[in-house]
Amino acid sequence: MKISNKIGVMQGRLTPMIDNKIQSFPKKNWAKEFRLAKKLNLKYIEWTLDYKDIFLNPIFVKSEIKKISFLKKKYSIKIISLTGDCFMQKPFWKVKKSKKLIEDFKRIIKACGSLKIKYIVIPIVDKGKIQKKSQEIKLIDELNKLNNFLKANRVNILFESDYNPKLLSKFINKLDKSIYGINYDVGNSAGLDYDVDKEFEYYGERIKNIHIKDRQIKGNTVRLGMGNANFKKLFTNIKKINYKGSLILQTARAVNKNNDVKEIQTNLRFIRSYI
């Protein structure tokens, strides 16, 4: 499939923000976004999952699961990835008593498996940031205990990290490549002033999903083309590794309310100019 047919959007980006949060599950508008995505000729929606009211999310509710399946088919939209903001909000690798969080994690894996969501993105950034070696050890140990469970449910774990290229390569190589990979965020990398060529050199083969955004160095997320993300290098490297995954627009929110769809249209034009 051509890369132009692999573009998707982060859930919630096509409808107004909730409680002024840049990203959160759009509980009132999630179904509406299928129609909006189809109208923009997008192929994917990346699901989002918050820890608050986690098991009220439609992926856990029987009647809503049927609705998701119906909407996917009706609008020819695929959901192959889920961003677990819940893991930043409640990182099991940063607490001593993590049994409940691990059980919740297993429920997430099972739900994703049932819906054929192949990738769960675990952001080890912000509140989920690994701040000491013991946290990394716990994360790897707990995940390795789930290897067979992940395989049985046909689910892979992808990490989004602020580790520099060398450290991230070292980290990901400690984990089974058949079930663990990397979610590459070009905007976050730009914000950290990392070099795209070096990142792909160190771990390009482990990249399974890409978030498209733009950021200024040590600054905020901005409209595509207004920050420091090097999209020319990104698409050169994508071609070099024969990347077959999706490109998920996790772009800056519209400045004016109710302009969410127009903002995505603007960003789509920018991305398509590179394809």
Write the layout of secondary structure elements.
Elements: E1 7-10, H1 32-39, E2 44-48, H2 62-75, E3 81-83, H3 85-89, H4 99-114, E4 119-124, H5 133-145, H6 147-152, E5 156-161, H7 165-172, E6 180-185, H8 186-191, H9 196-203, E7 207-212, E8 214-215, E9 221-222, H10 231-240, E10 247-249, H11 260-272
Parallel strand pairs: 1-2, 1-10, 2-3, 3-4, 4-5, 5-6, 6-7, 7-10
Antiparallel strand pairs: 8-9
Helix pairs in contact: 7-9
Keywords:
275 residues; alpha/beta; TIM Barrel; eight-stranded parallel beta barrel; two-stranded antiparallel sheet; 10 strands; 39% helix; globular
Provide a descriptive summary of the structure in words.
The chain is of the alpha/beta class. The chain has one domain: Divalent-metal-dependent TIM barrel enzymes (TIM Barrel), CATH 3.20.20. It has eleven helices and ten strands. It has an eight-stranded parallel β-barrel with strand order 1-2-3-4-5-6-7-10. The protein has a two-stranded antiparallel sheet with strand order 8-9. α7 (165-172) runs parallel beside α9 (196-203). The longest helix is centred in the middle third of the chain and has 16 residues, at 99-114.
